[in-house]
From TrEMBL:
<feature type="transmembrane region" description="Helical">
    <location>
        <begin position="47"/>
        <end position="65"/>
    </location>
</feature>
<dbReference type="InterPro" id="IPR036259">
    <property type="entry name" value="MFS_trans_sf"/>
</dbReference>
<keyword id="KW-0812">Transmembrane</keyword>
<feature type="transmembrane region" description="Helical">
    <location>
        <begin position="492"/>
        <end position="511"/>
    </location>
</feature>
<feature type="region of interest" description="Disordered">
    <location>
        <begin position="245"/>
        <end position="303"/>
    </location>
</feature>
<feature type="compositionally biased region" description="Low complexity">
    <location>
        <begin position="283"/>
        <end position="293"/>
    </location>
</feature>
<feature type="transmembrane region" description="Helical">
    <location>
        <begin position="134"/>
        <end position="155"/>
    </location>
</feature>
<keyword id="KW-1133">Transmembrane helix</keyword>
<feature type="transmembrane region" description="Helical">
    <location>
        <begin position="422"/>
        <end position="448"/>
    </location>
</feature>
<feature type="transmembrane region" description="Helical">
    <location>
        <begin position="110"/>
        <end position="128"/>
    </location>
</feature>
<feature type="transmembrane region" description="Helical">
    <location>
        <begin position="310"/>
        <end position="330"/>
    </location>
</feature>
<keyword id="KW-0472">Membrane</keyword>
<feature type="transmembrane region" description="Helical">
    <location>
        <begin position="176"/>
        <end position="196"/>
    </location>
</feature>
<feature type="transmembrane region" description="Helical">
    <location>
        <begin position="216"/>
        <end position="234"/>
    </location>
</feature>
<feature type="transmembrane region" description="Helical">
    <location>
        <begin position="380"/>
        <end position="402"/>
    </location>
</feature>
<dbReference type="InterPro" id="IPR011701">
    <property type="entry name" value="MFS"/>
</dbReference>
<protein>
    <submittedName>
        <fullName>Major facilitator superfamily domain-containing protein</fullName>
    </submittedName>
</protein>
């Protein structure tokens, strides 16, 4: 009775608010223990599957580079046709994205399964062209593989998907994608050259298994094994309500304030809108009881971009195109240029070594970039990569003009087989081009996703914009590289320097708008 007497001295609203404050403190303690949403990451097994998909796609794209010129010539084609064979998959990747995005339901499983099936089929067709002795079958095989290369866009989208990746982890995951790019650029041409050299066309080979076809057969087997792993370990992501929503909040949103008042009991204090304090109000993360941190960008947007944002989009898409144009051009050009230059005299084996060793030499820097991404702004990374690659292009233009691409090289057997020793100055240029433009391409997707509203819709749109820019660069770059000797090497390099210069001018003009959170 004493307790009841003491309690009756205070109005009901007073002890209700006291009780409400106590509940708020408990909720604050729970929320403070939850991981920062800006640092969230997807499930590890699914992330590994996506990163492996990116690496396998890169290897599949590059493994034919070192021997495609000889393969095309053997079947009656030309060096320009070889460039088309290298670059054509990206055209059909772009065409595949249109219907694929219509039926993917915001997930990744459909694209993964189609990528595995198309990659296996494409490799088999590419290998069968030798026995069929039909030039256009290697083109058909690469076109089929191109359907699988549509997965590249989904790899980028996965690593910037706001449903599963926080804003401060997007550049980090993009850096891991670049590591996969380095693996593909290094191991692809290297293994292609090794298969050409050591499988060859001698004893134990034939129309089915030889130096041209063995890389395709091996990769078809790897894709089959990977497909099994996808079916076992990958967990898809689909469209769903916001992570911060719960059934109770959704129910409240469907009711009017009058209905909420009717459903609230008399002893349950309510706020001005009719929502129960005790059961329905959630403490705001910006409450004074929460630890202070830098404000996050607003989560609600009108859906329209400002002029500065559109300028940033154009700049980033230009770099996405330029990086892959120049990389694709060099990868297609080195085997062709090396084979016709009497000072280089590259074979498919030495060209594959030259490409592969240069890309693998970049690998430690790619890994280092994963850790630097958390501390360095994306715009600085973009300009550093473009500047390094542009400087290498200028040096190579000087070497070509002076006919000194083999300067400092050795003509002994070992140097000619490895390729690097034949032209060390040329190799340094290739290393700097590979490192610079790969680093620049790392931040295009993550930086664009930070410039646009953090919604699933805009993430999908930004992924498409960057991927189509990549595709445009890959296909035109590969054709330009195959035709580099025909148009003249000075003009070939000059165009690449001009494209890089335009990109750096664009970045300088929108420098303030390119500022974004690190990580």
């Amino acid at each position: 009775m004493a307790s009841a007497t003491v309690r009756s001295k205070f109005p009901p609203s007073t002890y209700a608010v006291d009780e409400d404050n106590s509940a708020s403190e408990n909720v604050n303690q729970v929320l403070s223990s939850v991981d920062d949403p800006e640092l969230k990451l997807p499930k590890r097994s699914s992330l590994v599957i996506i990163l492996l998909a990116n690496a396998l796609l890169q290897i599949s794209f590059f493994i034919i580079v070192s021997s495609s010129n000889e393969y095309a010539l053997h079947l009656g084609g030309t060096s320009t046709f070889s460039g088309v064979v290298i670059g054509i998959p990206t055209v059909f990747s772009g065409l595949t994205l249109i219907p694929l995005m219509k039926y993917d339901r915001g997930g990744y499983g459909l694209a993964l399964n189609i990528s595995c099936a198309a990659s296996i089929s494409g490799m088999v067709l590419y290998a069968c062209a030798y026995k069929a002795n039909w030039l256009y079958l290697i083109l058909l095989g690469r076109i089929t593989s191109g359907v699988g290369f549509a997965m590249w866009m989904y790899c980028k989208r996965f690593c910037s998907d706001p449903r599963i990746v926080g804003i401060r982890r997007r550049t980090t995951l993009a850096s891991w994608l670049m590591v996969g790019n380095g693996v593909g650029m290094g191991l692809g041409p290297l293994f292609g050259g090794i298969f050409y050299r050591y499988v060859g066309f001698g004893k134990g080979t034939g129309n089915v298994w030889n130096g041209f076809t063995s890389p395709a057969w091996v990769l078809a087997g790897l894709w089959a094994v990977y497909w099994v792993a996808v079916r076992i370990w990958f967990e898809d992501v689909f469209e769903k309500p916001s992570v911060e929503s719960d059934p109770e909040e959704i129910e409240l949103e469907d009711k009017t304030p009058v209905q909420l008042m009717d459903n609230t009991s008399n002893d349950d204090p309510v706020n001005a809108s009719g929502t129960s304090f005790r059961h329905h109000v959630r403490p705001s993360p910006s409450s004074s009881t929460m630890p202070s941190r830098s404000p996050s960008p607003p989560t609600e947007h009108s859906g329209k971009l400002e002029l500065g944002q559109w300028a940033s989009v154009v700049c980033i898409c230009w770099f996405a195109m330029a990086s892959f144009f120049i990389l694709g051009a060099w990868e297609a050009n080195i085997p062709v240029y090396g084979s016709v230059d009497p000072h280089l005299n590259f074979t498919p084996f030495s060209a594959g070594n030259f490409l592969g060793i240069g890309a693998l030499a970049c690998f430690p820097f790619f890994v280092l970039n994963v850790f630097l991404a958390r501390r360095v702004q994306d715009r600085y990374t973009l300009m550093f990569g473009a500047g390094l690659g542009g400087a290498a292009l200028i040096v190579f233009l000087v070497l070509v003009s002076l006919d000194k691409t083999a300067s400092g090289g050795s003509s002994n057997w070992i140097s000619s087989q490895i390729g690097v020793g034949t032209a060390p100055a040329f190799f340094i240029c290739w290393f700097a081009v590979a490192l610079g433009f790969n680093v620049a391409s790392t931040v295009t997707m993550s930086l664009l996703s930070k410039q646009l509203p953090p919604t699933v819709k805009w993430n999908g749109m930004s992924s498409v914009m960057v991927q189509y820019s990549n595709y445009l660069g890959r296909v035109t770059g590969a054709v330009w590289g195959g035709a580099g000797v025909s148009v003249g090497m000075s003009r070939y390099v000059g165009l690449e320097i001009a494209i890089t210069g335009i990109g750096m001018a664009l970045a300088s003009s929108v420098w303030k708008h390119l500022k974004a959170k690190t990580g």
